[in-house]
Specification:
By secondary structure, chain A is an alpha/beta fold. In chain A, about 35% of the residues lie in helices and about 25% in strands. Chain A contains eight helices and ten strands. Chain B is built from seven helices and three strands. The chains are: A alpha/beta, B mainly alpha.
């Protein structure tokens, strides 16, 4: 299998003695290009820590991580910061938008930081806002947007530098059911467009959009299943139609 | 082939006297992708049965052959009464959680299988169903809230509730295993 993102023997422990938390225990993971992988588990199972390690937001105690064939666990701080900016898109539960910047300014920021010209960055940002259905909200501050709209701005921002992989941490955690559906639709579009996605969540709705689902308990992967390929049969049966 | 309850066909006639094919079209509209494998002939079979039971009467369409799909059906007084009764009935499908619950207990007691593995297998199946229902919901036009979208939302919410219960099962059986 070709992989865009892989981890081998990944480990992260916190604390010591009785307070020792084995947040991630020797995890192996391979993500193929264009694949959507959901990692599900109860809170405290280590899934957010794992995502932070994969995206270079945190460093592992042991193990290796490769992004597009390149070891990222051995990079220095500056190189790692550059990699996070250019090759990884992050989406967080609480959006993490800059409150004093408009939607389009938030989205163009990563491209400006990467050294794109203001004109190029702006054009790309507007394109991305259109793609996420927010073209008419470009000049709005986050405070004037709904939760679902803010998360879509955050997704647009994550895409600003055409990342190799988008990592999402509970992207629907703060959203109501309608806004969740909008985000599901957006992730589905990204998937169709070939974007590689890794989502950690305990929301079964977003997990169900994945190609592959991994269950995590106590820092380890305990189950893995492929959701694509073949359906369960009749929707009518699910709705309780008699047969 | 999926079918709907006799009372559903009866109640759909309450609006106005209709052809069988009109009832079918209304059913299809209300169910959307959920009704895709609905038995095409069932509405006519049901109408014939309802007529025998005296709940509907039919009048043939002038100049049309004597076929159930060409006749216009309407409710009789007993038919109207039955519809009113049905609307007032409080019926709700009962989820069968007991069997699964007892399966976990039996598996653990006899040490025949790991309850957590059973939970995982069940979760895989429910997530596949959730995926199917959600894909059907996403395939509907986004802006309109159709009857079919409302039904699919119900399916999704029930699956989510079942998945949350599986989480509770997982928590409890993890604690028991570790004790």
């Amino acid at each position: 299998m070709t992989t865009v993102l892989s981890a081998r023997g990944l480990r992260k422990w916190y604390g010591k003695g009785d307070g020792l938390v084995r947040a991630v225990r020797d995890v192996d993971l391979e993500v193929a290009p264009g694949e959507t992988v959901a990692i599900m588990g109860p809170s405290g199972c280590g899934k957010s820590t794992l995502l932070h390690l994969l995206g270079g937001l945190d460093r592992p105690d042991a193990g290796e991580i490769k992004l597009a064939g390149r070891r990222i666990d051995e990079l220095g701080e500056r190189a790692l910061a550059r990699l996070r900016r250019d090759a990884v898109g992050f989406v967080f539960q609480s959006f993490h938008l800059m409150d004093e910047l408009t939607a389009v300014e938030n989205v163009e920021l990563p491209a400006l930081l990467a050294g794109r010209s203001p004109r190029t960055a702006r054009r790309r940002a507007i394109e991305l806002l259109d793609r996420t259905g927010l073209g008419d909200r470009a000049g709005f501050l986050p405070s004037a947007l709904s939760g679902g709209q803010r998360q879509r701005v955050a997704v647009a921002r994550a895409l600003a530098n055409d990342p190799l992989v988008v990592l999402a941490d509970e992207p629907t955690g703060n959203l109501d059911s309608t806004a969740t559906l909008d985000v599901l639709r957006l992730f589905d579009d990204l998937h169709e467009a070939g974007q590689t996605l890794v989502i950690v969540t305990h929301d079964s709705r977003i997990a169900a959009t994945a190609d592959r689902l991994i269950s995590m308990r106590d820092g380890e992967f305990t189950d893995e299943t492929r959701l694509t390929g073949g359906t369960t049969g009749s929707l009518g049966k699910l709705a309780g139609l008699e047969s | 082939m999926a079918t709907v309850q006799q009372e559903v066909v009866l109640a759909m006639l309450a609006k106005e006297p209709s052809h069988g094919y009109e009832l079918r079209a209304r059913l299809k509209q209300a169910l959307g992708p959920v009704g895709e494998d609905l038995n095409a002939g069932q509405v006519y079979v049901t109408l014939t049965r309802l007529e025998k039971a005296g709940l509907v009467v039919s009048t043939p369409n002038p100049g049309q052959p004597e076929r159930p799909d060409r006749k216009v059906y309407e409710l009789t007084a007993p038919g109207q009464h039955r519809v009113a009764e049905w609307l007032a009935e409080v019926s709700w499908p009962r989820p069968d959680l007991t069997e699964f619950h007892l399966k976990l207990i039996a598996a653990a007691a006899a040490k025949l299988a790991d309850p957590l593995a059973i939970v995982d297998a069940q979760r895989r199946e429910l997530l596949r169903r959730l995926r199917d229902a959600q894909r059907a919901a996403l395939a509907l036009p986004a802006e309109t809230t159709s009857d079919a979208a409302l039904l699919l939302e119900g399916i999704v919410l029930r699956l989510q509730a079942d998945l949350r219960w599986l989480e509770a099962c997982e928590r409890t059986w993890t604690i028991r295993r570790d004790q």
